[in-house]
Task: inverse folding
C-alpha cells in the first residue's frame, strides 16, 4: 500500500512538472514571438513588411524601415529629447532620493517619525490623481512645453526614499562609528562608507527610474504640445496609431513602425545586463527590510 502510494505520488509530481513546463513555455512564447516579429518586420522590405502573417525572420533583409524612420519621420529629435529626459530625470531622482533616504536612516534625525509618516502618505496618492494640479503649477512656473516638466515630475518618490532608507539601515552602524572616530566627517561617511556599500540599492532604483523615464508617456502628452519637444513614446504613438488612421499620402509602412519600436527597446536591453547582478541582490534585500 505504501509502495503504491509512493508510485502515485511520483506520477502526480511528474504530471505537475510537465504542466508547469508547458505553462512556462506558453508564457515565454507569448513574450518572445511578438519580440521576434517586431525585429523581423523592422528588417523587412516595404513590401515584405505588409504581409498579414506573423514573421519571425525577414524574407528579404532590408533597412528601408530605419531609413524611412530617420529621413521621412525625423525620429532623431524625439530620441534626443528622450535621452535628455531619461538621463537628467534619473540622475536627479536617484541623487535626491538617496540623500533623503540617508538622512532618514539616521537614528538621531529630528522629527524622523513625522517625515517618514508624511512620505508614506504621499505613496497613497497616485500621480494620475494630481496631474491637473501639476499642470496648473507648471503653467505658473512656465514649464509647459519644456522638457523640465517631464524631468521634475516624480523627481522624488516615497517608494525610492523608503527603499534607500532601508538599504542604509541594513549597513552595520559600527562601520560608520569607526570612520567617525578616525576623523571622517558626515560627507566622508556618506560618499566613502555608505554609498559604496549601497551599490545594490543604487542599481535597483537607477534601473527602475531609467525604465520609467525612458517609457514615460502620460507626462509628455499632458505637458508637451510643441512637436519639437515631443519625446520618443509620443512620436511612436503618432507613428503607429495616427499613421494607420491617416490618408494614404502619409501612410507609414510596418517596417518603419517596427523600427521605431526596436529603437525604443534597445536601450533597456543594453542597460539591464550591466545592472542585473546588483538589481537582483538589491531587490531581495529591499523586500526583506521593513
Result:
Amino acid at each position: 500500500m505504501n509502495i503504491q502510494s509512493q508510485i502515485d505520488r511520483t506520477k502526480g509530481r511528474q504530471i505537475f512538472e510537465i504542466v508547469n513546463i508547458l505553462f512556462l513555455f506558453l508564457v515565454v512564447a507569448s513574450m518572445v514571438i511578438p519580440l521576434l516579429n517586431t525585429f523581423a518586420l523592422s528588417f523587412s522590405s516595404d513590401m515584405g513588411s505588409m504581409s498579414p502573417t506573423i514573421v519571425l525572420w525577414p524574407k528579404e533583409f532590408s533597412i528601408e524601415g530605419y531609413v524611412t524612420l530617420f529621413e521621412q519621420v525625423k525620429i532623431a529629435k524625439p530620441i534626443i529629447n528622450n535621452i535628455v529626459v531619461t538621463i537628467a530625470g534619473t540622475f536627479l531622482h536617484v541623487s535626491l532620493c538617496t540623500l533623503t533616504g540617508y538622512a532618514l536612516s539616521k537614528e538621531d534625525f529630528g522629527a524622523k517619525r513625522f517625515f517618514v509618516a508624511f512620505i508614506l502618505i504621499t505613496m497613497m496618492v497616485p500621480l494620475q490623481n494630481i496631474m491637473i494640479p501639476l499642470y496648473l503649477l507648471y503653467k505658473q512656473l512656465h514649464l509647459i512645453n519644456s522638457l523640465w516638466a517631464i524631468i521634475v515630475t516624480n523627481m522624488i518618490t516615497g517608494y525610492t526614499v523608503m527603499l534607500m532608507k532601508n538599504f542604509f539601515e541594513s549597513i552595520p552602524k559600527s562601520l560608520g562609528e569607526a570612520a567617525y572616530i578616525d576623523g571622517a566627517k558626515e560627507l566622508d561617511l556618506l560618499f566613502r562608507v555608505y554609498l559604496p556599500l549601497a551599490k545594490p540599492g543604487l542599481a535597483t532604483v537607477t534601473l527602475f527610474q531609467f525604465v520609467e523615464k525612458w517609457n514615460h508617456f502620460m507626462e509628455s502628452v499632458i505637458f508637451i504640445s510643441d512637436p519639437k519637444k515631443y519625446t520618443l513614446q509620443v512620436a511612436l504613438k503618432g507613428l503607429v496609431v495616427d499613421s494607420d488612421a491617416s490618408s494614404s499620402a502619409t501612410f507609414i509602412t510596418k517596417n518603419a513602425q517596427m523600427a521605431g519600436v526596436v529603437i525604443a527597446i534597445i536601450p533597456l536591453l543594453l542597460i539591464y545586463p550591466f545592472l542585473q547582478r546588483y538589481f537582483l541582490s538589491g531587490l531581495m534585500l529591499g523586500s526583506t527590510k521593513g
Remarks:
- Residues 41 and 49 are 5 Å apart (CA to CA).
- The longest helix spans residues 2-42.
- The radius of gyration is 25 Å.
- DSSP finds 13 helices and no strands in the chain.
